[in-house]
């Protein structure tokens, strides 16, 4: 297994590729802008998941766990990726509306994260791989601990915790009014769930989040997006059927090239400019990616591209 990250001494590839594609295919700009159906899709998922939770208030724990893994996990992971979509303001043209909708989409997830996620995720786009800024990259503690098949399996099972807690330990940001709002509304929903329907309903929501972010097909995108299986490539797309449940986040090269295009239109980028994407390695199965990550002894937490900070102390320059 590698003992150091892959280091790049050039800017991340997406900004330059975006300029090249737009110079050749300026019509791609017509794809920019919000998804008009985003609000409806999020509302349906939120209400369906909350209704399912209340319906399970008297269910046995085995039934709750089973439904959480085979049903609730898909809904909560869908909402997590809806929050990802909203972090790019792709539901409404007015940013504050996206933020409120993100707090609403957060409700079934059980833990307040939508506002904080946006802060770190936009840095991941602007400073992809930059050491000390991009919190999507595993910490040195993870690289020391995750060194074999067993520990990689445990890491995959708990990867949502690493993904969520890593930035809070390595690069904490002072909370503001929006984080407080997100926290209060989320606690209000959680407390109401427990008060009116009991702990089992609340546990169903938490379990749906936890199992959906671990050893689960949808969670394969955490690994597939940027973990390096081919040294010459640092971002990978997935073109399988789960894109329909994940806001098409699998089109990840396309998304980083054009973060202002909503997920449901990203496939058009590949159709308009196929020569820019056909040469890349891509995936058809996120489950296979998880298996490859665990079983391939040459792949681990160090399998990520890193860049040094610029002289100004931030990162390499980017376009929006």
Chart the SSEs and their pairings.
Layout: E1 6-8, H1 13-24, H2 38-55, H3 61-87, H4 95-106, H5 114-126, H6 140-145, H7 149-157, H8 159-170, H9 177-197, H10 199-212, H11 220-224, E2 237-238, H12 252-257, H13 266-272, E3 282-283, H14 286-295, E4 305-307
Parallel strand pairs: 1-4, 2-3
Helix pairs in contact: 2-3, 2-4, 2-10, 3-4, 3-5, 3-10, 7-14, 9-10
Q: If you had to describe this structure to a student in words, what would you say it looks like?
A:
Helix content is 54%, strand content 3%. It has 14 helices and four strands. Helix 2 packs antiparallel against helix 3 (61-87). The chain is globular and about 55 Å long. The protein starts with 5 loop residues before the first strand and ends in a 13-residue tail after the last strand.
What is this entry, summarized?
The protein has 320 residues and is mostly helical.
Give the topology string: H per helix, E per strand.
EHHHHHHHHHHHEHHEHE
Radius of gyration: 19 Å
Helix content: 40-55%
Q: Give the distance, in angstroms, between the N- and C-terminal Cα atoms.
A: 35 Å
Question: Roughly what fraction of the amino acids lie in strands?
Answer: under 5%
Strand order of the largest sheet: 1-4
What's the structural domain tally? 1
Taking pLDDT < 50 over at least 5 consecutive residues as the criterion, the unreliable ranges are none
Q: Tell me, rounded to a whole number, the average pLDDT.
A: 95
Largest sheet, in brief, is: 2 strands, parallel
What is the overall number of helices? 14
Give the overall shape, derived from the CA principal axes.
globular
Tally of DSSP β-strands: 4
Structural class: mainly alpha
